[in-house]
Amino acid sequence: MSEHIDEFEFFLEKPWSDGLPVVTPTEARLARMLAATTRDPDELLGHIPPAMGPATVRNVALHTLMAGCKPEYLPVILGAIPLMLKPEFNLNGVQTTTHACAPLVVVSGPAVKQLGFNTKEGVFGHGCRPSAAIGRAIRLILWNAGGGYPGEPCKTTQGHPGYYSFCIAEDADANPWEPLQVERGFSAGDTAVTVVGVEGPKSGFFPFYIGLIILASLLLLPEIKSGKATRRASALVEECALSTHLEPIRIEIGVAVMHYGLRALADVIDECHPGERRGMR
């Protein structure tokens, strides 16, 4: 490359980047990346739909380098690509749907600590190089080999931030169940990769209380009609919130959500059956 050409601008001007700068893939850097695997660089993992570009070990390593990965991240990506190419995953559908879904990579096993994944607060967020770089490498492969460009052929109406990078790791120490790789038939000492097409992450706080409102409505319907349910429902929310270790401020908000949700339901009942509700105010 000529010294008069800005290497970062060069790649940004080509349809090879996700809109962010990439690491310049020199021959020396690619050789260091390929040294992280014993697989033949020309081994074909498959073709990435919908463009059906070939995904060889060399091509995957090239995008892994461009995404900012360390060489030791390469085996994770080499494990994820064939999973997405299984017929039951329907990568062609995920790449072209109008729905806002993208492949989420979940890493479990010893590599979680070895590579330094964040498994605590902000697990879907910023500041974790393994999650950011591995997820981005997957997206660059889907972009360049698969041709997953927005508008054509990718018809997602809105998309979500996971279209830049979408990779997390399991917190086995805090998991009350068996590690994910063990549930999938591997041993506790194995590192495994799970891939699933999902929407962007959403806070489970308010859906949690909406679900409690629905549950309380079904269990306490006779008392809702008579105006006696609010106090019992609030106690139910507080008990459930405490059992899930929510902070006090969230408990207070949840009780308020439940209270006004039940009052709204009572108003509906009153509209449908005048005279059946008493003392709700």
Task: Characterize the structure shown.
The protein has 281 residues and is mainly alpha-helical. Helices cover 46% and strands 9% of the residues. The protein contains 12 helices and 5 strands. Helix 11 (229-243) packs antiparallel against helix 12. The longest helix has 25 residues, at 248-272. The radius of gyration is 25 Å and the shape is globular. The relative contact order is 0.11.
In short:
Helix content is 46%, strand content 9%. It is built from 12 helices and 5 strands.
Task: Fill in the keyword field for this structure.
281 residues, mainly alpha, three-stranded mixed sheet, 12 helices, 5 strands, 9% strand, disordered C terminus
Topology:
Elements: H1 7-13, H2 27-34, E1 44-48, E2 53-56, H3 57-66, H4 74-84, H5 91-96, E3 102-108, H6 111-115, H7 129-144, E4 167-169, H8 180-183, E5 192-198, H9 205-219, H10 221-226, H11 229-243, H12 248-272
Parallel strand pairs: 3-4
Antiparallel strand pairs: 1-2, 3-5
Helix pairs in contact: 2-3, 3-7, 9-12, 11-12
Query: Helix count?
Result: 12
Question: Average pLDDT across residues?
Answer: 82
**Poorly predicted tracts of residues:** 244-254, 275-281
Largest sheet at a glance? 3 strands, mixed
| Strand segment tally | 5
Which value, in Å, is the CA radius of gyration?
25 Å
Strand order of the largest sheet: 4-3-5
Structural class: mainly alpha
How far is the first residue's CA from the last residue's CA?
76 Å
Assembly status? single chain
Helix content: 40-55%
Form type? globular
Order of helices and strands: HHEEHHHEHHEHEHHHH
